[in-house]
């Protein structure tokens, strides 16, 4: 038995089946492309929401620390001794990894709760260390 394509069979193949197969292939490829674009957009939106949530959390932490430092500076302005302010506010230590310190207007450290050697900290190496505040301007908080 010999398979022969001729006449009507060839016309059916060429005019109906082949174009429909190509159309289905184009539709499938287009569907995959649309799906990929939608998934990329979905991931981008999810990432944007995650970044916004992280930024809001960081902003809240900074606001909390700003409020804490403002409260400490108000207590110092009320005349509370700097060493007692640092001791009484020890619950803030976890918020300030480097510790808390009170410096005067000349940049001299009056008191701090920093447990390591200050001279070895690169960010504080330029601050001269002194123990007393003799007739200097009002102290401020460094944290």
List descriptors:
2 helices; 143 residues; single chain; mainly alpha; 7% strand; 3-stranded antiparallel sheet; 54% helix; 3 strands
Your description of this structure?
Strand 1 (101-103) and strand 2 form a beta hairpin. The protein has helices at residues 8-77, 82-88; strands at 101-103, 109-112, 140-142. It has one domain (8-142). Strands 2-1-3 form a three-stranded antiparallel sheet. It is rod-shaped and about 105 Å long. Residues 131-138 have low confidence and may be disordered. With 143 residues, it is mainly α. The protein contains two helices and three strands. The longest helix is centred in the first third of the chain and has 70 residues, at 8-77.
* Shape summary: rod-shaped
Estimate the helix proportion, in percent: 40-55%
Radius of gyration: 36 Å
**Secondary-structure element order, N to C:** HHEEE
| DSSP strand tally | 3
Largest sheet: 3 strands, antiparallel
Give the termini separation. Answer: 94 Å
Strand order of the largest sheet: 2-1-3
- Given as residue ranges, the uncertain stretches (5+ residues, pLDDT < 50) are 131-138
Mean pLDDT: 80
Quickly describe the structure.
The chain has 143 residues and is mostly helical. It has two helices and three strands, in the order ααβββ. It has one domain (8-142).
Topology:
Blueprint: H1 8-77, H2 82-88, E1 101-103, E2 109-112, E3 140-142
């Amino acid at each position: 038995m010999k398979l022969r394509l001729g006449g009507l069979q060839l016309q059916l193949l060429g005019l109906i089946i082949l174009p429909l197969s190509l159309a289905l292939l184009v539709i499938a490829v287009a569907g995959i492309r649309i799906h990929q674009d939608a998934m990329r957009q979905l991931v981008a939106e999810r990432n944007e929401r995650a970044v916004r949530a992280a930024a809001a959390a960081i902003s809240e932490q900074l606001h909390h620390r700003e409020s804490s430092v403002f409260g400490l500076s108000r207590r110092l302005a009320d005349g509370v001794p700097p060493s007692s302010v640092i001791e009484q506010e020890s619950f803030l230590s976890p918020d300030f990894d480097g510790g808390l310190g009170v410096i005067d207007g000349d940049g001299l450290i009056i008191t701090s709760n920093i447990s390591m050697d200050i001279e070895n900290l690169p960010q504080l190496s330029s601050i001269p260390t002194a123990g007393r505040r003799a007739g200097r301007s009002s102290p401020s908080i460094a944290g």
